[in-house]
């Protein structure tokens, strides 16, 4: 009789505990309605560059403190291994190919400011949704998702057209030419080709003039004139585009207005932090969303004098340590404004460190720790596994590590839900709300599969097997390293996605990432009992995934990524673009 009485009581007890646990998430949402969001994104930072991820030679005390006070993700994955598509996926919660922002036709990232490609106006960013929920939204730093579509001032791809109330930053990206005397950026081969073509045209025109006026051949004067005019225009186009690259690509904007052309890169760090501090102070009564997209640690590794020579790893280490100081300034601004308990802070990198970039024989890119590969490599972990840290004191646990697959795309649904909004129902959202995972209320990832693209080519697939908590990784295509025993594509500044730049694997390479995160020991198809089962499971998932893909305009096609003079932002008299609308203290004079 007593046992019959106890059993129902035990059942009721467990039901009560389950209800209590479930209601805690709802209670947090209710008591912390409309939290502020500060989302920080580094550029080209390797996961192995931070102390909290195992680095013991580069000093990153502020980012380490962020991890100590919050949740650190150790299997946080970028949706693409290069800037433009990764940032498009981050902003929309969708694989970049769904918006046409990932392809190989005209380049894998936006090359110039005067192009028609960019994040389409019909895409929905988390900023647009939160703005509609009463948030004041700001975007500081690097954008790299386009500016104009058809006319110089239509601003269809501009941050203010994608839900941001305020923009202060660089609409393209930091390139080496932004720093006087810097190394050549990835356009160097095109520069050499254009110089050759220009010289060839000049020689041809000169030959025609000589032939014409020595009466060796009968050539119309109009033909000579047209050819000479063409040669002059071609030379001017080359000189404007490449001779003035610093002026045309390196600009600083405030909302729709150019305030520096070219930008003062030495002052960029101080400007960015000043803007962040002022934004937080102006909107401390909230709610607000602030995205801080650092120019660090992309080459040319512009570092202020106070940090030069301070690290153990040359200019790259100096640059990382300066960025860490900038993160510390943002954290202090939040804490000093009394917003620590009501602000969710996030820090990540857009993709892995850049292995191929060198200054002479010295590699000056990031370090990806134990993970193979780097920037531009869609399959190997080094290109897509990135730092991921969340802090919300009093809500999220502190000093916590989660080793489950998560994605930069997860930021979209997570902040949308915490901001009190609903996800769009008219499109596929590939990200997942990871707030319950961050709270440790669930112990598994909502991502069963993650698909790793290089341009529009599927290179690899990750399968998280919930029953065993095992993460499998299949590579269908991998980069062709040069030389073969290298760790990068050192004959190119970036690894390619197709053709002779890749290796197709049949049968595919299979790794157990849970046991072999460095991807050094592929499982053998003829000896491993799990090989066939895993491959079949993943191939079935790929077929289902392909059914969700719709044909959309390629924003990075050859035409859309081709420089167009009529779309080139210019402050001054075209084509000699120059202006400085800032005073000597770096404050706006507008």
Query: How can the largest sheet be summarized?
Result: 12 strands, mixed
SS-based structural class? alpha/beta
Question: Overall pLDDT, averaged?
Answer: 87
Overall domain count: 2
Return Rg in Å: 26 Å
Tell how many strands the DSSP assignment holds: 20
N→C terminal distance: 84 Å
Number of helices: 13
CATH superfamily of the largest domain, by name, is Alkaline Phosphatase, subunit A
Shape: globular
CATH topology of the largest domain: Alkaline Phosphatase, subunit A
Explain what this protein looks like in three dimensions.
- By secondary structure, this protein is of the alpha/beta class.
- The chain folds into two domains: 461 residues, Alkaline Phosphatase, subunit A (3-Layer(aba) Sandwich), CATH 3.40.720; 71 residues.
- 30% of the residues lie in helices and 18% in strands.
- The strands form four sheets. Strands 1, 2, 3, 4, 5, 6, 7, 8, 11, 12, 13 and 20 form a twelve-stranded mixed beta sheet that branches.
- A hairpin with a 2-residue loop joins strand 18 and strand 19.
- The protein is globular, with a radius of gyration of 26 Å.
- The C terminus is likely disordered.
């Amino acid at each position: 009789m007593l046992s019959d009485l106890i059993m129902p009581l035990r059942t009721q007890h467990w039901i009560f505990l389950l209800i209590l646990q479930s209601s805690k998430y709802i209670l947090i949402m209710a008591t912390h309605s409309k939290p502020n969001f500060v989302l920080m994104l580094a550029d080209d930072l390797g996961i192995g560059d931070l102390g909290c991820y195992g680095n013991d030679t580069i000093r990153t005390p502020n980012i380490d403190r962020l991890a100590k006070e919050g949740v650190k993700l150790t299997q946080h994955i970028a949706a693409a291994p290069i800037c433009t598509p990764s940032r498009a996926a981050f902003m929309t919660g969708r694989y970049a190919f769904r918006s046409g922002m990932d392809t190989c036709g005209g380049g894998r990232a936006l090359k110039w400011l005067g192009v028609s490609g960019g994040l389409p106006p019909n895409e929905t960013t988390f900023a647009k949704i939160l703005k509609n929920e009463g948030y004041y939204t700001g975007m500081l730093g690097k954008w790299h998702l386009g500016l104009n579509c058809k006319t110089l001032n239509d601003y269809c791809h501009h941050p203010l057209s994608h839900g941001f109330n305020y923009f202060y930053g660089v609409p393209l990206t930091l390139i080496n030419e932004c720093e006087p005397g810097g190394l050549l950026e990835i356009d160097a081969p095109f520069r050499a080709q254009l110089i050759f073509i220009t010289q060839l045209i000049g020689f041809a025109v000169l030959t025609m003039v000589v032939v014409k006026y020595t009466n060796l051949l009968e050539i119309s004067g109009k033909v000579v004139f047209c050819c000479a005019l063409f040669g002059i225009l071609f030379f001017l186009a080359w000189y404007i585009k490449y001779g003035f690259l610093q002026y045309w690509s390196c600009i600083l904007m405030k909302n729709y207005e150019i305030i520096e052309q070219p930008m003062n890169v030495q002052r960029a760090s101080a400007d960015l932090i000043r803007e962040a501090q002022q934004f937080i102070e102006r909107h401390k009564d909230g709610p607000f969303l602030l995205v801080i997209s650092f120019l660090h640690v992309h080459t040319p590794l512009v570092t202020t004098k106070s940090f030069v020579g301070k690290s153990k790893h040359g200019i790259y280490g100096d640059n990382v340590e300066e960025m860490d100081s900038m993160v510390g300034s943002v954290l202090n601004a939040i804490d000093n404004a009394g917003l620590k308990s009501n602000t969710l802070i996030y820090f990540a990198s857009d993709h892995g460190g850049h292995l191929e970039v060198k200054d002479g024989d010295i590699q000056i890119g990031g370090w990806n720790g134990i993970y193979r590969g780097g920037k531009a490599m869609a399959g190997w972990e080094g290109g897509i596994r990135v730092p991921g840290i969340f802090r919300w004191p009093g809500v999220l646990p502190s000093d916590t590590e989660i080793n489950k697959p998560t994605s930069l795309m997860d930021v979209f649904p997570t902040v949308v839900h915490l901001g009190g909004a609903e996800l769009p129902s008219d499109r596929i959202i590939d990200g997942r709300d990871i707030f319950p995972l961050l709270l440790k209320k669930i112990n598994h990832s909502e991502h069963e599969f993650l698909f790793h693209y290089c341009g529009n080519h599927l290179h690899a697939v990750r399968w998280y097997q919930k029953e065993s908590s095992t993460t499998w990784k299949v590579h269908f295509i991998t980069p062709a390293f040069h030389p073969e025993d290298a760790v990068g594509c050192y004959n190119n500044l970036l690894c390619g996605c197709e053709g002779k730049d890749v290796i197709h694997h049949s049968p595919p390479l299979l790794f157990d990432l849970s046991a072999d995160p460095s991807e050094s020991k592929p499982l053998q198809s003829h000896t491993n009992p799990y090989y066939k089962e895993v491959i079949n499971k993943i191939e079935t998932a790929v077929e289902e995934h392909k059914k969700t893909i719709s044909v959309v305009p390629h924003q990075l096609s050859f035409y859309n990524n081709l420089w167009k003079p009529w779309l080139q932002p210019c402050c001054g008299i075209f084509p000699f673009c120059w202006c400085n609308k800032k005073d000597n203290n770096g404050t706006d004079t507008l």
